[in-house]
């Protein structure tokens, strides 16, 4: 198992970018509207767009539906 050294500035920056992307994915899939607090981050916007695309695929292929 790899342990991430969060004290390393590059790893800390990467973790922040991934958090913005993840938040965008969640908002795209679950809320279908962006959170104005995160809307200035390019990583958030990319995650949001990818979340909307993933939601469309889920609906198209009826994944997880009853």
Tags for this entry?
66 residues
Written account of the structure:
With 66 residues, the protein is an all-alpha fold. The protein has a domain at 25-60. It has two helices and no strands. Helix 1 crosses helix 2.
Fraction of helical residues: 55-70%
Radius of gyration: 14 Å
Helix-strand sequence: HH
Decide which structural class fits the backbone.
mainly alpha
The assembly state of the depicted protein chains is single chain
Major sheet characteristics: none
Number of strands: 0
| Poorly predicted ranges | none
Cα-to-Cα separation, first versus last residue: 37 Å
Mean pLDDT: 91
SS summary, helix count: 2
Q: What layout of secondary structure does this protein have?
A:
Blueprint: H1 9-31, H2 42-60
Task: Give a short synopsis of this structure.
The chain has 66 residues and is an all-alpha fold. Helices cover 64% and strands 0% of the residues.
């Amino acid at each position: 198992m790899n342990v991430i050294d969060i004290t390393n500035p590059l790893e800390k920056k990467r973790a922040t970018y991934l958090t913005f992307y993840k938040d965008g994915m969640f908002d795209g899939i679950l809320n279908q509207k962006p959170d104005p607090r995160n809307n200035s981050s390019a990583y958030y916007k990319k995650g949001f767009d990818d979340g909307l695309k993933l939601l469309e695929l889920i609906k198209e292929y009826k994944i997880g539906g009853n």
